[in-house]
Amino acid sequence: MTCDEAEVLLNALIDGELDAGHAREVEQHVAGCARCTATLAAYRQMNQAVASAGLRYSAPASLRARIEASLPKELPSNVQPMPTRRGVLRGFAMGSAVSAIAATGLFAIVLRNDDQSRIEAEIVSAHLRSLQAGHLTDVISTDQHTVKPWFAGKLDVSPPVIDLTAQGFTLIGGRLDYVDARAIGAVVYKRRAHIINLFVAQTSNMLHRTAKTETIQGYNIRSWSDRGLNYWAISDLGADELAEFSEKFEAAAANNKEG
Amino acid sequence: MPVTTSNEDPNRARRFREAALPLLDDVYTLARYLLRDASDADDAVQECYLRALKHFDSYRGPAMKPWLFAILRNVCRAEYARRASAPSTTLDDTPETAERAPMWHEDQQTPEAAVLKDRDAVTIRKLVDALAEPFKETFVLREINDLSYREIAEAVGAPVGTVMSRLARARAMLRSAWLAEQE
User: Fold this and answer.
1) Are A16 and B143 in contact (CB under 8 A)?
2) Residues of chain A contacting residue B50, judged by C-beta atoms under 8 Å apart
3) Which strands sit side by side in the sheet containing A182-191, from one edge to the other?
4) Residue B177 contacts A, CB cutoff 8 Å
5) Residues 6+ positions from B83 with CB-CB distance below 8 Å
């Protein structure tokens, strides 16, 4: 690795964006290079100083109040469709005719893989999509023996469909969705006015993974793995109620092996 | 499918509040660095939230922060256009020569052994604020707003490789300025 490459990759190293293999290469180069050692030390010091200097601003209370006041309880129904975000971003891209081609080729392959967070982000998107009119269910039924067969032949897995009505979570149907560029089953539940999408996808890993909750964009996502399936339950329910959902679901699934 | 679904989805405004309002300080911070003016930042942030609400149906993730930042940048562009007298603060990626210049030769005069002195917060903020665009923006998004490279790329609409070279250059410039400042 040359100093030129190393100096750029140093940045990715201290930002935690390098994959392990390249991180090692950069570290090896730095170990034998006084100039890059000094640069790395200076950058780490700058990082530290910037982080501890408290350079963030807090929005003034008056601004917060003004924005809150300007948000309607409900959007007026006559709002025009707006350009999509993609369109907006394309506008930026065209405005910035930047030539970093050499860089792009090199860096595309060295960055840490963000699969997990990307999939979770896609889960949120799929959930948001499902909440739009007419997107929630492809098959509407509170009967698990109607919903489960509906998935047959549409997916490479048979998602467990478990009626949890008695436990306070009403099965309302199923849906095919797309996450990570492939079809995925979504089983839809409801508690009070809150929709829960339970996404189910196959995994080669048969190990049981204990459920954990993350919050993304105000939604709680509880994910776990069991017997070769990955589960993501997402809802605007509170984390405690979503945890209750996953516990009830797992308990019922354990009692229902053919699930 | 950018259609309005308000009738069917009364939770929309509430979801927007829950997703966007917690990020107000982040958006405001970026606005302060981009515009260097408290009252302009106020206006830009408010406009950003109004636009974001209008666009919310077209929002498809992945993350809310870069999406809001992309809208804020758009708002700031209008503000830059208004401040036609200060072209040096535009977000345009010109001068291209700056972008093309190999950043790793930038600070060849930097003494290898030179140790950065501790600076107080006011000085550090001044040094960051003095960075040229688009390097300052990239630096602020990374170091102060804590975005990943991919999120920065999404917010600014540039490839990740561009983000990396801008960030490398931003740090090299900050280091030089830091050293110069302490002499």
Assistant:
1) no
2) 70
3) A139-140, A170-179, A182-191, A194-202, A229-235, A219-226, A209-216
4) no
5) B89
Per-residue pLDDT of chain A (259 residues; tens, 9 = 90+): 788 888 888 899 888 888 777 888 888 999 999 999 999 999 999 988 998 888 899 999 999 999 988 877 654 444 444 444 444 444 333 333 333 333 344 444 445 545 677 788 888 888 988 887 667 888 888 888 888 888 887 887 788 899 898 889 999 888 888 887 778 899 999 998 899 999 998 877 677 888 888 888 888 999 998 888 889 999 999 989 999 999 999 999 888 764 4
φ, ψ (nearest 5 deg) of residue B134: -85, 15
Q: What is the dihedral of CA B59, A117, A196, A259, to 10 degrees?
A: 140
Backbone angles phi, psi at A252, to 5 degrees: -65, -40
Residues paired with A213 in a beta bridge? A222
Interface contact A98-B120, CB threshold 8 A: no
Interface ipTM: 0.77
CA gap B59, B16 in Å, rounded:
10
**At a CB cut-off of 8 Å and minimum separation 6, what does A253 contact?**
A160, A162, A226, A259
How close B29 gets to chain A, by Cα (Å)?
5
A/B interface, count of CB pairs below 8 Å: 250
